[in-house]
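Priority: medium. Attachment 1 of 2:
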């Protein structure tokens, strides 16, 4: 997939060092399931797993976000298709050096467009730590509706966290 400034593609083995670098940033990892630093050997395994999955099959698929002009990996968008193939969940991570420039919104919008218009999904959900106001704001900008707050739902990195739940129906997608 391409957008005005981005290429969304399958991960390649050569992406592992860059993936390890941006996932090693404590601010990028703060609300994510992994800890910083994120070692290169772990990134190599992750990239192999990402490359082996399919965007059209149930389970997780990770799109690499590449800045077209620089041909540089700057983040990723994760999609989990449910077994019924008409519902999914989305997540996203962006290198801190490329945040606050609209790249995440552009990338997630392109993936949502594919999910709804090409793959025919009925609903896509997203979940984030309630303190992650930028992720919540991104989902709201894209039309997601807040559907719930799960209080002290997740024990991660030594603390209980609240989770915000978001949902977007195909009939609401205006992308």
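Attachment 2 of 2:
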């Amino acid at each position: 997939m391409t957008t005005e400034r981005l290429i969304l593609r399958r991960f390649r083995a050569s992406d592992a060092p860059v993936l390890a670098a941006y996932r090693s940033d404590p601010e990028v990892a703060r609300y994510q399931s992994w800890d910083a630093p994120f070692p290169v050997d772990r990134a190599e395994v992750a990239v192999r797993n990402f490359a082996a999955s399919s965007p059209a099959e149930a389970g997780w698929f990770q799109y690499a976000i590449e800045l077209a002009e620089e041909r540089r990996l700057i983040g990723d968008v994760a999609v989990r298709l449910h077994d019924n193939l008409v519902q999914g969940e989305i997540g996203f991570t962006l290198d801190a050096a490329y945040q606050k420039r609209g790249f995440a919104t552009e990338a997630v919008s392109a993936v949502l467009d594919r999910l709804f218009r090409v793959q025919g999904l009925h609903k896509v959900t997203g979940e984030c730590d309630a303190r992650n106001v930028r992720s919540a704001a991104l989902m709201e900008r894209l039309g997601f509706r807040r559907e719930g707050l799960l209080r002290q739902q997740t024990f991660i990195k030594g603390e209980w966290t609240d989770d915000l739940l978001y949902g977007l129906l195909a009939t609401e997608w205006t992308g």
